[in-house]
Amino acid sequence: MEQGETPEECLRRELNEEFGIITSVGEFVCESEYDYGQHHIRLLAYRVEYLTGEFHLDSHDEIRWVSYSEMDGCDFPEADKPIVRKLIKEAEDDI
Fold first, then answer.
1. Residue from 84, 82, 89 nearest 74 by CA
2. Mean pLDDT over residues 40-47, rounded?
3. What is the pLDDT of residue 92?
4. Which of 11, 40, 55, 60 has the maximum number of C-beta atoms within 10 A of its C-beta?
5. CA–CA gap between residue 41 and residue 35 (Å, rounded)
6. Could you give the C-alpha distances from 26 to 50, 59, 73, in angstroms and in order?
7. Which domain CATH number covers 31?
8. Which structural domain, as residue segments, surrounds residue 75?
9. pTM confidence score
10. What's the gap between Cα 64 and its chain centre?
11. How many domains does the chain have?
12. Whole-angstrom Cα distance, residue 16 to residue 78?
């Protein structure tokens, strides 16, 4: 986050810088922390609505839309896994 920036503003900016898209940041979902040894990661997850823009990849190798049921078969970094599990559980609870 840049100085004086809220987490929501940071997420909106980062999505625009990294993917070239404009979004609306919604409700907070959860937080995940993971210690990789050389660095500690703290992730704040929010629901985000895509508004406009064409996706392009600058810092990532791949991007794709997947359903909640498909997320379980994806290879996520350790810091992301608690967030993914929460999203999958919420989707299952909504059925």
1. 84
2. 96
3. 87
4. 11
5. 6
6. 11, 24, 26
7. 3.90.79.10
8. 7-94
9. 0.86
10. 13
11. 1
12. 24
